[in-house]
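Retry 2 of 3 after timeout on previous attempt. Resubmitting structure tokens to design endpoint.
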């Protein structure tokens, strides 16, 4: 049983379509599964600046999974599946 539920922004859905065309969708799905059980894995990076409060996980050298954790609701909001600066 997962501890957290995932929610997705419209941008993350669009980004996921791009990942599918680059054959990275399975990697993203694997990260989602991990986030349901542990939203702060060792490989995550806490972000600063305009993304303060968010975290990032590497999909590949170009793409990052950017998300925010809502602890009270046990929700992980997937914000983006592109780079930090896109």
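Retry 2 succeeded. Sequence:
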């Amino acid at each position: 049983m997962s501890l957290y539920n995932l929610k997705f922004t419209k941008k993350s859905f669009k980004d996921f379509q791009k990942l599918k065309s680059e054959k990275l969708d399975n990697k993203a799905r694997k990260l989602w599964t991990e986030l349901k059980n542990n939203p702060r894995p060792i490989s995550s990076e806490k972000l600063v600046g305009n993304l303060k409060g968010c975290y990032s996980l590497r999909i590949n050298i170009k793409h990052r999974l950017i998300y925010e954790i809502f602890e009270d609701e046990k929700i992980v909001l997937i914000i983006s599946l592109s780079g930090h600066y896109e």
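Attempt log closed. The beta strands are 5-8, 45-46, 54-58, 64-70, 75-80.
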